[in-house]
Amino acid sequence: MKRKWTGRVLSALPILALGFSAIAKILKADAVVQGMTHYGYPEHLIAALGVVELLVAIIYAVPRTAFLGAILMTAYLGGATATNVRVEDPSYMATVLLGVLVWIGLYLRDDRLRALILQSRNRKGAVPANFA
Fold first, then answer.
1. Which of 46, 76, 42 is nearest to 58 (CA)?
2. In angstroms, what is the C-alpha Rg of the chain?
3. CA separation (Å) from 106 to 5, 51, 64, 84, 109?
4. Are 2 and 37 in contact (CB under 8 A)?
5. Could you tell me the CA-to-CA distances from 90 to 50, 79, 86 in Å, in that order?
């Protein structure tokens, strides 16, 4: 039970980070508009990026779709990391850390993912029955 709660807490961190960021983008907060312009994104795309960000966080937060959400969140955070690296902003480490937390949190809270990883370590190429 402690493992699941630890996973939920670790999963909540990227959900909250993306959620707050998404809301700021949707509301087009001045700091966000300035920041996104600095990164080279046109202002008319900011709200759309916020909607995508919010949807990804919601998909990850729902247990039934969390695995898909982890993949989408990793992709989104990968893009954010690449953008930060491109403009030589050292804050890229935050997006890398959030990406790691996504998978550690999911691993700890999802028995199916843990079984998949553990079983694949024991027998190469094997897939648990509940994934087939």
1. 76
2. 17
3. 11, 23, 12, 25, 5
4. no
5. 22, 15, 10
Any alpha helices (H) in 87-110, and if so which ranges?
92-109
Contact 56, 18 (CB under 8 A): yes
Residue 10: closest CA among 102, 88, 90, 80: 102
Name the pLDDT band for 23 (thresholds 50, 70, 90). Answer: very high
How far apart (Å, rounded) are the C-alpha atoms in residues 57 and 80? 14
pLDDT band (50, 70, 90) for residue 48: very high
Helix (H, G, I), strand (E, B) or coil at 28: coil
What the block records as the tokens of 99 is 């990406």
DSSP state of 62: S
Q: Where do runs of H (alpha helix) occur along 27-91?
A: 30-38, 46-61, 66-86
pTM, 2 dp: 0.84
pLDDT mean across residues, the chain:
91
Tokens of 43: 């202002």
- Cα 11 to Cα 2, 88, 120: the distances in Å are 14, 28, 23
DSSP state at residue 87: T
